[in-house]
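User: Look at the shape:
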Amino acid sequence: MAPESRRRLITIAIIAFVLGILVIPSLFQSKTVKTLSYSSLIQEVRSQHVLSASINNSSGVITGQLTDGSNYSTNGPLPVVNDEVNSLKTNNVAVTFANPSSFASTFLPYLIWILIFVGFFMFANRQARGQMNGMMSVGRSKAKQFNQDRPKTTFADVAGYFGVKQEISEVVEFLKTPGRYKEVGALIPKGILLVGPPGTGKTMLARAVAGEAGVPFFSVSGSDFMEMFVGVGASRVRDLFATARKQSPAIVFIDEIDSIGRKRGAGVGGGHDEREQTLNQMLSEMDGFDPSEGVVVIAATNRPDVLDPALLRPGRFDRQIVVPLPDLEERIPILEVHAKGKPLDASVSLELVARGTPGMSGADLANLVNEAALHAVRRNSATISMEDFETARDRVMMGQQRDTMVLMDDERERIAFHESGHALLAYVLDKTDPLHKITIIPRGMALGVTMTLPEEDRHIMSRQHLEDSLCMRMGGRVAELLVYGDLSTGASDDLQRNTELARRMVREWGMSKEIGPMAWGSNNQVFLGEDLMHTRDYSDHTSQVIDDEVERILREQEARAIEVLTLHRRGLEALTAALLEHETVDGETAAQLIDEAHGEPVHAHGTKTVSSLKSAHRKSAIAETPVPPVPTPAPVAPTWQPPTLPAV
């Protein structure tokens, strides 16, 4: 409670208390009372004007009621005279005797208000003391301590990542049996930094360390150190390491350390005092004048490029362990872990699912298995089949299917030609990823999707692969141009991605003869303050050459797409007709349609497609259905013509 509000409440309470004291006694008073002399009372009694009389044995005060309904009061003699009492009774007066009033009956109204007032002040004092304690404890660490019984996660629960688990398990083993390592002079690493993309299991590995370690484990997030008051974060760091040192050997896990470990002196306005003081304190605690002994720090981040260099040097974080996206051999056990306990159909092959999910992280695979289970429930099936995994993969990679979206016939036809252009180039070109599926059903933010999947995990890309990717993305725009003679807005995302990729080929990867083996362009972020006032490190002439090279690459790939689609125009129309008829065509069926329209197999070594996750023996319903010919639009005079390319 704010001091101003508390002061207002106290003022209101005091006013209510004073009013209560003044008002309450009047509530216990009777009607208007006449004050009579004792002789007048005797006269009224003799005149039989008195109905009742109450005599106080202690004070001699006589009170009662007259025949006219009014009350009276008089001071009688002490002690009470018996003859006068008999006289009252003789004149039909109801006589009663009142004992002295007790303390409780006299002061009870006041006592109630006093208790209420004291209780209010005790409540206000407790609130103020609680706030004071909160302010005094604001500098205490918010780390949660775990022991070997909690959590239950162990390295056996973390599938794959054998090298990562080995390096981390060495630290755990050192803390359990330090004698083995000290015999050969090995020192325990002070810090381990887990680096990897989101969803790769960095936090799960830390939970496994907590489950494996027989030492105290403190878990805290980087944001827990930040507060609106300068100095609070540094105080929490001191408290965290002081607590860990008392229970050493111990492990401290800091999740999302980039929230406090960013480069000092960076950012709009010259930095952040609270964050930098917190970072300075952490640097001092890890390897400063008074280093912490027996305390190992494990941190996780997906942004190692923003961390301060002083935090990354040996002696603080001695090891940087990369937790990459899982490869094929690691995706299989990850899927087995997430599918454990789920009713899988006998036809389900997790190895086939793993082969069809390249580039997925552990979190993506967990989501894939869960989506497959949800789809099985929607089918009212008691088991999860390969069809559920296929639908789940499409849901994760292409987006949710929007069945309620209605397209006009001309829009639907244009989208079919657009996606057929992408699909045909993806199949015909040599270095593109194999074709998997084409659909004109709106998914996510797209009105149609052409999906390709790599046959295996790829870590680098050649220039020919990049050029074929550029050409394939030009397929939708070029198909519309060849068929309708004009363009639409459907290729905006393709053009944006192509322009970005071509610019990186020229500026960063040296894939331009005019630019040569030089690279420009910084990966520094504006929020780090390193590009806010960054000047271009190349001349205006070089900038013009870069723009010209980007334009040249894109125009060459557009002309190449025109050439290929013109050659396979019949395949384009056949694939479009199948899409208009069935809305979704798999890669194998698309390859069959293109080969038949071409008159011979495009690829002598076989079709370049990725099989679906469904049974390989299943016959395509599309292949069995005769494909009606697509109506060829009337020739339209093109409003745009591709430029004439100079001879190379």
Notes: The chain has four domains: 3-104, 144-322, 328-398, 409-624. The chain has a mean pLDDT of 77. The first strand starts at residue 33 and ends at 35.
